[in-house]
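Hello support,

Our group uses your service weekly, and this is the first time we've seen a run hang past the timeout. The protein is DNA-directed DNA polymerase. I'm not sure whether the cause is the sequence or the server load. Input pasted verbatim:
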Amino acid sequence: DYLSIYCKRDVEIELENFKRFIKFLEDNSISRLCYTRGSTAMAAYLFSHYHKRIYIHNNKEAIDLERDSYRGGRTECFFIGELKDETYHIVDVNSLYPFVMRNNLYPIKYKKITGKISVNAIEDYLRSFSCVAKVLIETSEPVYAGLF
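Update from on-call engineer: The timeout came from a worker crash unrelated to the input. Re-ran successfully.
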């Protein structure tokens, strides 16, 4: 009997969440409801934000490079220890992806794969294009994304 009541309450809560989600979609003219969250998100993107053509290619080497370049950002403590005698603010950013996509330029169309090239050549490319590159960085400071 306890489990029946518990499960019924769970369903009531989920129904309310679902109704609020539908209302949110309607009130904000975002999209239509699709079968999955992912497809609803894609429909919302296409409906509200899709202003430039997305180019699809089938170059396996380029796809591997693109996938290898996609990773999360830095997560680390900049200070470990006890903080005293000042006012502090806790800032927790869940996702900067929408912000950086809106405010920066990123590659949107595959052009070509180039083998080993010089730093000067990469700099020349970057004057006209956004690039994805696999590079070896030599630095005395660990200020770059690590290998996973």
